[in-house]
Design a protein that fits this description.
With about 280 residues, this protein is of the alpha/beta class. It folds into 2 domains: about 190 residues, P-loop containing nucleotide triphosphate hydrolases (Rossmann fold, 3-Layer(aba) Sandwich); about 55 residues. The chain contains 10 helices and 7 strands. The radius of gyration is 23 Å and the shape is globular. The protein starts with a helix and ends in a 6-residue tail after the last helix.
Length: about 280
């Protein structure tokens, strides 16, 4: 082995032993990001998968409250962490993404939307450190948040939301969606009651997590008129060529086969209809 080969091998060995460089997280690269806990990096999302705010039907009250809360935060005014809870497919995550888009349309670059996956909640303190350093106002979003037995991640979330020494950074607001009002499974809460030395305190420990959210917004399955309004709004927005009576009849048949009426069911029907009509859905 000559001298150059030896030096190259030494250099490669040193590179493998050296700690990796801290990733540069620039929150001005985009308006939306996904947090990757393993690499402690924020991946920019150039195009967010979302529905325009005007197409979300049957949730006017929830829309107005979340929009007002988010707008105040974007202006530097006091605002609350929000928990959007309720039935599946009722527009919880769609509303968060649509409200973010609406605020940025009113004032470009006003907010960054940062998504953290449920399994990465233990890395939340590190993420908050990254967001705090950036100074850009951020809505931190966790979709389908819930906790099961033997899961202690909720304790770190409680501390981060309000209970820690530092508290939540002033430039960060936390929004979460869940099918559970208290973020805990019912059998998990009942188990605490039956096995704890002090059942009341044990249950309080579990359900108090949801109290850290100042704004609670409940979502429920839509009635028939609201469901049809969703379908008609989508069909009109995407220019689907079908007679109103046929649209109504087919939409109702679709909801019967699915056994529910919700925004998700309405969107799935529209995708099926567009495919059968040979029309593309843009956006």
């Amino acid at each position: 082995m000559n001298e150059m080969d030896l030096l190259r091998r030494i250099a490669e060995a040193l590179e493998r032993l050296a700690p990796g460089l801290k990733p540069l997280n620039d929150l001005h690269k985009a308006d939306a990001f996904v947090w990757h806990a393993q690499t402690q990096s924020l991946q920019p999302v150039p195009k967010v998968n979302r529905v325009p705010l005007m197409l979300l039907k049957g949730i006017a009250g929830q829309r107005d409250m979340l929009l007002d809360n988010t707008r105040r935060f974007s202006m530097g005014l006091p605002a609350n962490n929000a928990l959007l809870w309720g039935a599946r497919g009722t527009g919880k995550s769609s509303l968060v993404k649509a409200v973010h888009a609406e605020i940025n349309q009113e004032k470009p670059k006003a907010l960054a939307l940062v998504e953290i996956h449920r399994e990465d909640i233990p890395s939340l303190p590190r993420l908050l450190g990254v967001l705090k350093d950036s100074q850009r106002r951020c809505v931190l979003f966790c979709d389908d948040l819930s906790f099961d037995a033997q899961d202690d991640a909720y304790k770190s979330l409680k501390a981060v939301l309000e209970g820690g020494i530092e508290g939540r950074p002033a430039n960060v607001l936390f929004y979460a969606t869940s099918n559970r009002r208290h973020l805990m499974a019912r059998d998990m809460i009942e188990n605490e009651r039956s096995t704890a030395i002090n059942p009341g305190e044990a249950v309080e420990e579990k359900v108090s997590l949801s109290d850290r959210f100042g704004l609670w917004l409940g979502f429920h399955n839509a009635d028939q008129d609201t469901y049809l309004a969703m379908v008609e709004g989508y069909a009109r927005e995407y220019g689907l060529q079908i007679a109103p009576d046929a649209l109504k009849r087919q939409a109702l048949e679709w909801s019967v086969t699915r056994g529910s009426r919700s925004g998700r069911v309405a969107w799935q029907f529209i995708q099926d209809l567009a495919g059968r009509l040979g029309q593309k859905i843009e956006g």
